[in-house]
Every structure is written in C-alpha cells, then in structure tokens.
Amino acid sequence: MNPPTAVTVTDPQGVHGTIDTAAWPLDGRRAEVLVQLEGGPQVLVPVHLLVREEEGRYSIPMALADLEQHAGADPREPPLVLPVIEETLGVEIRPVETGRVRIRKVVTEREELVDLPLRREEVIIRRVPINRVVEGPLPVRYEGDTMIISLLEEVLVVDTRLLLTEEVHITTRRTETHTPERVTLRHEDVTIERVDLERQEPHSQEQEESHGEDRDRTL
User: Fold this and answer.
1) Which of 41, 164, 194, 196 shows the smallest number of beta carbons within 10 Å?
2) What is the pLDDT of residues 30-62, one digit of tens each?
3) 60, 82 Cβ separation under 8 angstroms
4) Residues 171, 172, 174, CA angle at the centre, nearest 5°?
5) What pTM was computed for the model?
6) How many CA atoms lie within 13 A of 65 on its CB side?
7) Tell me: the pLDDT tens digits for 70-108?
8) In this structure, is the dihedral angle defined by the CA atoms of residues 131, 136, 142 and 143, taken in order, positive or negative?
9) Beta-strand pair 58-59/6-10
10) Are the beta carbons of 43 and 32 closer than 8 angstroms?
C-alpha cells in the first residue's frame, strides 16, 4: 500500500494546510516544502520546523500566516524575507544614591540606689534514729515545714520454726490362725459315802440327800 501523497499541517492557531509529498518530499532532500493553506494561499515552510504527529499528520510551532508568500510569487524561488522591527518598552529600576547619613551612638552612665529585699534559705538536716520494722517503702511526708525522708535498709532475720519432716504411721493388725494339738487335761471328782452305824453300810450322797429331804418333811 502506497503512502498518501498529501499530509496535513496545523499551526498553533488551528490553521490547516496540506503538503503534496509527491512534489515536495519530506525525506530531507529539500530544505523547505510548499504548504497549501485553506482558502488558496501557499507558504514555504522549513522542513526542520515540521513535527510529525499521529496518523501521518504534522504540526508547526509558528503561525502559517507569518510564512505566507505574496500572491503570484513562484513557490520554487526562495522566499523574500523582510525583517520586521518592533519597539518594546523596557522598564528598569536601579538604585540612585541621593545622600548619606552618619549615625553615632553615645553611651552615658548614671548611678541609682537600688534597695531590694534578698531572701536566703537555709536547710537544717537532722538524723533521727528509728530502728523499727516496716512492711514496705514509706513515701515522703511533711510535718509543717519539715520534709521527712525515710531511709530503709534490708536486714537478715533468722527465725526458728518447727518443720514437719515426716510422719510414722503404726497400724495394729490382728490375725487368727487355728493350730490343732492334742492336750491331756485332768479332772477331779469327789465321791462322798456315809457309813450307817447301825447297819454298817455305806450310803451314797444321793441316798443321804433323800433321807435328808424326808427328815425335813417330818420336821
């Protein structure tokens, strides 16, 4: 696809023009190219002033109207350059010495009587032994104009106490066992006999007891 033969040029004022690249190539072989403005005028624009933009368009940092040529001029001839002169007002401020002054400082002395009260404070420090056991640090306290600061010291306290080291537990346990053995035991009995004097017969204790019962009944 061949590139377009006409490209657009725009100046800061928004004036558009076109360049025929077939007759006026932009490859650097020409120092200037002819720009066809809208409405018919033509101007020669230096190639180094053209700035390439997007989509093949160009811009120029100056107004195209300032480069407009006279009508009927041959665009292939060098353009006629006429200097334009303009006077501008320049305002400048510079210091001008109009005079000088001299300043001198004179120091004078005078005496004045100053009678101001002066205060003097004395601190009396007195150490009061206490030697009393406390439970913890004591804050600074005031008694009138006296500030009291407590001084503490750690001391070693040896105390004797009973310490239970161990217990001895004694338990009585009863057991019962059977050990059969043969044992000979002796037993004594008494037999009582009475002798009847008449019959000379012995009586047993049972007979005596029966006779005794009869006698009791007879009596």
Assistant:
1) 164
2) 788 888 887 777 888 888 888 888 777 888 888
3) no
4) 140
5) 0.30
6) 5
7) 334 454 555 555 556 677 888 888 888 888 888 888 889
8) negative
9) parallel
10) no
The structure tokens listed for 150 are 């407590």
List pLDDT tens digits, range 116-134. Answer: 888 888 888 888 898 888 8
Contact 107, 116 (CB under 8 A): no
Q: Over the stretch 205-216, which tens digit does the pLDDT of each residue have? A: 444 444 444 444
Distance from C-alpha of 56 to C-alpha of 8, rounded to nearest angstrom: 8
Using DSSP, state whether 56 is helix, strand or coil: helix
CB hemisphere CA count around 29 (13 angstroms): 7
User: What phi, psi does 13 have (nearest 5°)?
Assistant: -85, 0
Pairing of strands 58-59, 51-52: antiparallel
Of 5, 8, 73, the closest CA to residue 44 belongs to 73
Residue 206 has which token pair? 């049972």
Q: Where are the domains of the chain?
A: 6-67, 192-219
Of how many residues is the chain composed? 219
